[in-house]
Structures are given as C-alpha cells and as structure tokens.
Specification:
single chain, 414 residues, alpha+beta, Aminoglycoside 3'-phosphotransferase, Chain: A, domain 2, 9-stranded antiparallel beta sheet, 3-stranded mixed beta sheet, 14 helices, 15 strands, 42% helix, elongated
C-alpha cells in the first residue's frame, strides 16, 4: 500500500464512516447480506472507481451511475492543452459506453449505512449522487464533491476539511461566501452558499455550480485585470505608506510566527529593506489561477474563495495568476519571464488608473513574493508539493533582484 492508497482509505473513513474497503472489481470484501438501514434512500453497498488507479487517484467515480461518472470526468478534467482534452474525451467515452468498469479494476467498496451522500441529500432536500476530485498530493489537498441528481444534472459542489489546514480553509471559504453574498460585483459572478455544517466531525460547505463550460474561456489580459480590480473594491481602496499599513504589520507577525524556519530571517530582512512607497490597498481573492476563473466577453466567473483577504496591495491577484501561468513550462524560466510580464501587468493603464504608481511596481512584486513564501512555509507546502513551493530554490533569488529594482524605482524622498 503506497501513500496514495493510504490517503484514499483515510478519506473513505471521513466520507463513509460505515466502512470503505479497497478491492478489485466483483470482490468487495464486505458481507453480501450487508444490512439496509431503514429510512435511508440508497442504503446499500456501493462501488466507486479510483481513476486512473488506487495508486494514483485523481477522481473517484460511482460505478453504478454512468451519467454521474461521465459528468464527473467532464467537470474535473483540465482542458487547457490538446493532450488534456484528448484524455478527457477517451475517459468520457469509456464511461459512457460502460467499458471503464471493465478496464479499471481497482474499487473502493462502501458498506451500507449513513454516508456523506445521505447527509448531503438531507441538507439539500433532494437525492444526490457524488463524484469526487482529490487532485495531486499537496498540503491543502481536500476532496471536492460534485453533487448530481441520479440523472446526471449538476446540483452543486461540496468541500470537506480532512485535516487542520484544510478544515481552516473550508471554514474560511464559508465565511468568504457569506461576505460575498452581501455585496454586488458588477462584472464578477461568485458561487452562492447552499449549506454550511459538519460531517463526521469535519467542516462541510456546499455551494452552487457556476455556469462554466463551452461558453466560457480563460480570461484575456483585460478581462483578468477588470476582474482583479473589481475584487479589490470588495472593500474601500485606501492608499497608505507601506510603513503605516496594517498589511505590513500583519505580514511581519506572520513571518515571526514561522519561528525557527531558516527562511524567516531572509524574508523579514527583505521586507525591512523595501522602500517606504505609497501603495493602494484593497481585497484579493488570494489564489486566482486558470483553475478557478472563467470568462465571457462581459463577465468573469470566480470560485475557490478560501484565501480571500482584505487590506492587501492592489495587483496581487494579477501577479499570482501570471506567475502560475508562467511556470507551466518550468519554474526557473517561468519566474524569469514573470519578473518582466508581472511588471507589465502592474503598469497597465487599468492598474495605474486604480492608484498603483509606477515607482511602487517592484515593491508590490516583492511584497507578493514575501507573502507567498510566508504562506507556503506556514502550510508546509514543500513537504507535499512540487518545485514552486521550494522557497529557497527560486523565490528568494527572485526577491533579491526585485529589491534592487524597487530601490532604483523609488523616489529619493522615500
């Protein structure tokens, strides 16, 4: 049993406390006469397929409902490259034709009893079936459940915390969605919170599904910046000197809370060396990437609000999106491109028109890297993630270069 199989069985204990066992097709390891629980619809032994396998699970799909399985593949599969689109087509065809259960032999067998499906059906007052996305190993990995009617129509999405970090993020997103429900963003649509509660001792939230599909695409540069600036205005944008900003004090406290981490002194020293320029502060999404935004010509659809924060330098969301785009083909060359493309984004007339001065561009970029490094270190992302979380490998060298640029840009009166 490898680490991924262990994760899968641990996850089964959270979602299906009545019992979940790994096995092969046709061999559940559970009693064939497992009792049906009175009053529970669908109370029977269920089979799920870990795809592509129990040793490398990315999605978990119901064997008995091909509509839900096909919809789960379509909803969770990335489609940003030709290879990804081809793989999605092959998988959806295999499930739609009924071949997938014959080709994929690993099974997760769930015993009869009260399960996450029953809790969700009760919360939404309708019968639901689920497909589950768990993604690659990382510190904030948690199950995202696609909720469907038995006929395969999407009802919404659910998230459940499975450890201290993911539980904190689920609670934070619940609060963010409650806040977003009280404001009106002219060009941005956010999910509506359908239910918040607990399941099996873990925080649970359910949100509506946004109308994202063939009619939406990744945002253009202009669409991205319009969206970023609208999110900034979730609170009143205020210009402050960096030294007088609540943001800087909060960031210092977050770095101090890292304790004995060897990277902390370098981050604190870099923050101290930045020029005391004037910066506009507003809200940011906190994790705006191609995986949680889609656009039409007039509107952006944005989800995954677990990192929403206030009093943050304008432009952070644009820098975060751009960094994640640049590193798709490699971290080091991508960061080198980002140092130039990120600066161009912050010098765009839309951003300067919102109050970000040219003499603060490199300072804001350096603040973003310090903030990102602090997040990665607190979340221990390097223990479970790829190269982007290796702060001392690429981030600290990039930060040193930005410090020099910031000092050169800043007016002499700073």
């Amino acid at each position: 049993m490898n680490g991924e199989t262990t994760y899968l069985t641990d996850l089964a204990e959270v979602l299906w406390p009545c019992g979940g066992l790994m096995g092969r097709g046709g061999d559940s390891g559970l009693p064939r006469n497992a009792a049906v629980v009175p009053g529970l619809r669908g109370s029977r032994v269920r089979e799920y397929l870990p795809v592509p396998s129990a040793h490398n699970p990315r999605v978990i799909l119901p064997v008995a409902n091909r509509y839900a399985a096909v919809r789960g593949i379509s909803a969770f599969a990335p489609r940003h490259s030709f290879r990804e689109r081809l793989r999605t087509t092959v998988l959806t065809t295999a499930f739609a034709s009924g071949l997938a259960p014959l080709l994929l032999r690993d099974r997760l067998h769930v015993g009869a009893g009260r399960t996450i499906e029953h809790a969700l059906s009760a919360a939404l007052d309708r019968e639901v079936v689920i497909a589950i996305h768990i993604g690659p190993p990382r510190a904030n990995r948690k199950p995202v459940l696609l909720l469907l009617t038995p006929a395969g129509r999407t009802v919404g999405y659910a998230k459940i915390g499975v450890n201290e970090l993911t539980s904190r993020l689920v609670r934070a997103e619940t609060q963010a969605l409650q806040r977003l429900a009280e404001v009106r963003l002219r060009g941005v649509t956010t999910p509506r919170l359908l239910h918040a509660g607990d399941w099996n001792g873990h925080p649970l939230l359910v949100q509506e599904a946004l109308p994202v599909g063939d009619q939406t695409d990744r945002p253009t540069r202009r669409q991205l910046l319009r969206c970023v600036l609208e999110i900034c205005n979730l609170e009143t944008v205020r210009e402050r000197r960096l030294s007088h900003s609540p943001y800087r004090r909060t960031l210092i406290n977050r770095i101090s809370a890292l304790g004995g981490r060897p990277e902390a002194p370098a981050l604190c020293a870099a923050l101290e060396r930045l020029p005391d320029v004037r910066v506009p502060f507003g809200a940011w999404h906190g994790d705006l990437t191609r995986w949680n935004i889609a656009s039409t010509a007039r509107r952006a659809f944005v989800w995954d609000w677990e990192r929403l924060a206030l009093e943050v330098p304008i432009g952070f969301d644009a820098l975060h999106y751009e960094l994640n785009e640049c590193v798709q083909t490699g971290v080091h060359p991508g960061v080198h491109r980002w140092l130039e493309s990120g600066a161009r984004l912050l010098r765009d007339p839309l951003v300067t028109g919102a109050g970000l001065r040219p003499d603060a561009v490199s300072t804001v970029m350096a603040l973003y890297l310090i903030d990102l490094a602090t997040r990665y270190l607190h979340d221990r992302q390097a223990d479970a993630s790829g190269q982007l979380a290796a702060v001392d490998d690429w981030l600290l060298p990039a930060l040193a270069g930005l410090e020099e640029r910031a000092a050169h840009e800043a007016p002499r009166t700073c």
